């Protein structure tokens, strides 16, 4: 029988991990941003020990770095790491697409249709944060509906790291992940053409990596309470 106290701690640590991962994925917390424990405790109404464990977990996932005498900060992936993340995404997302048949698309049609509508609305609004959130979510949805929890979990980590990479290395301010390409992937999956869907996904990821360069962008000071308040 599990210890209720242990279970409660695990759930609280996971909550903190999830909130910080979401903030990083949505580029609310940019690469290099210092994650001051006392501020996180206040912003998240959390226990300091739970915050410390959550930061250590994120550090193991290469989303946060922890340095002696400097504390924790949002990771700043190198160009080499960026290339390796996209190599991993190509492998993982091809495998995810190959798991999805027409029946899966039909079963999740309402969710997919609603999401693609949200993507278009975000793009039309020109709200960068909304665009990043919606376009990234598409990839996570495919992971979820694939039915392969391991692939989905790996992809979730890669997507957060991809957000850091885009924040550091994207050449312009317009997110390059386009909803038309997402629609084409869904159309191919609905038609039962997984090979075509995988090829479109590969080209899609090639395009995403193609807009990156090696210019680092320094992060400024942020108000953690404000950034994390509605997550």
UniProtKB/TrEMBL annotation:
Gene3D superfamilies reported in the protein's UniProt record: GntR ligand-binding domain-like, Winged helix-like DNA-binding domain superfamily/Winged helix DNA-binding domain
Keywords: DNA-binding, Transcription, Transcription regulation
Key word Transcription regulation present: yes
Source organism, top-level taxon: Bacteria
Domain (HTH gntR-type) ranges: 10-77
Single GO molecular function: DNA-binding transcription factor activity
Pfam families: FCD, GntR
Record PROSITE patterns: HTH_GNTR
Protein name: Transcriptional regulator
Organism (species): Rahnella aquatilis (strain ATCC 33071 / DSM 4594 / JCM 1683 / NBRC 105701 / NCIMB 13365 / CIP 78.65)
Lineage: Bacteria, Pseudomonadati, Pseudomonadota, Gammaproteobacteria, Enterobacterales
């Amino acid at each position: 029988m599990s210890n209720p106290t242990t279970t409660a701690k695990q759930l609280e640590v996971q909550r903190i991990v999830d909130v910080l991962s979401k903030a990083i994925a949505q580029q609310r917390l940019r690469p290099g941003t210092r994650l001051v424990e006392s501020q996180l405790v206040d912003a998240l109404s959390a226990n300091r020990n739970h915050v410390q464990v959550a930061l250590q977990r994120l550090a193991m996932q290469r989303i946060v770095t922890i340095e002696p005498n400097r504390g924790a900060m949002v990771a700043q992936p190198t160009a080499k790491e960026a290339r390796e993340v996209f190599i991993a995404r190509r492998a993982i997302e091809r495998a995810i697409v190959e798991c999805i048949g027409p029946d899966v698309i039909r079963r999740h049609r309402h969710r997919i249709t609603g999401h693609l509508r949200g993507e278009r609305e975000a793009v039309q609004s020109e709200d960068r944060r909304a665009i990043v959130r919606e376009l990234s979510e598409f990839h996570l949805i495919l992971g979820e509906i694939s039915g392969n929890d391991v692939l989905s979990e790996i992809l979730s980590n890669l997507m957060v790291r991809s957000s850091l990479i885009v924040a550091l290395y994207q050449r312009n301010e317009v997110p390059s992940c386009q909803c038309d390409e997402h629609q084409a992937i869904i159309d191919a999956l609905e038609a039962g053409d997984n090979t075509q869907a995988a090829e479109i996904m590969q080209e899609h990821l090639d395009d995403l990596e193609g807009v990156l360069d090696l210019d680092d962008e320094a992060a400024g000071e942020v108000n953690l309470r404000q950034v994390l308040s509605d997550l």
